[in-house]
Amino acid sequence: MSNTDIPNEAVITSYAKAPARTVSAGGVSYAYRELGPKGGIPVVFFVHLAATLDNWDPRIIDPIAKGRHVIAFDNRGVGASTGQVPDSVEAMADDAYTFIKALGYDKIDVFSFSLGGMVAQALVVKHPDLVRKLVLTGTGPKGGKDMDKVARITYWDILRATLTRSDPKEFLFFNRNATGKAAGRAFVNRLKERTVDRDAEIKTKAFQTQLKAIKKWGRSAPDDLSSITQPTLIANGDNDRMVPSVLSEDLHRRIKGSELIIYPDSGHGGIFQYHQEFAPVAVDFLAR
User: Fold this and answer.
1) Is residue 7 predicted with pLDDT exceeding 60?
2) pLDDT tens digits, residue range 76-113?
């Protein structure tokens, strides 16, 4: 039976309406949401620093979920998932592996953003057979130049946002020009489209531990990314203050055959600012 035989109302393709679920593995209860037609290889979304399930842009997830089974999750100690956040990216990748296996999958596509992209790299280096395709956005490689400065920039922008009563993401993800400010406000508003069954906020300690893990990742010896043979799509804005845009170019050089998109006049959240251009590219890449 093909997906087209299933009546439309049976398949939820709106992230705002995706049911909240949990699965237990290794003493941790993992919170996740799933949407889109079941069957085939799922696309698993790896979220950014300080983010929970409520931080995915529906304009990116919904177009992918039209044709694919999509799973977004809170890793250990994040949002509604139990346990403690690990202090290394590699341990986060181990937890992600535990979660994916608990759902019974042997093959997935990965869509990742920022810290999620670091976790995705660690996962694919350790478990190459698990991942079929890889989307790395707003991220950089282990040992990447200036990656260890993320914490400093993050705290500074949280302070700036607090003083102006804005969402820190408006500062961290977008340029502070007219275009960037408008894109930032629009993005933050889209994240509020889900009104019921929202996720638990990330705890301060969990956030601080994630920052520690990123710093450690930035100061570690690089991984050999030439071992990544999966089709890989890399995207970022041209002015990423959090994870410098040059690191996307670095990833592109080191992952053979990868595709790179750099969006003009945009920052860390370039894919969200350019969601109308980027979503179809991601859909096409994952469908090929």
Assistant:
1) no
2) 999 999 999 999 999 999 999 999 999 999 999 999 99
**Quick check: 282 pLDDT over 90?**
yes
Q: Give the CATH number of the domain where residue 191 resides.
A: 3.40.50.1820
Domains: count for the chain: 1
Residue-level pLDDT at 10: 80
Domain range holding 82?
3-287
How far is it, in rounded angstroms, from Cα 182 to Cα 50? Answer: 22
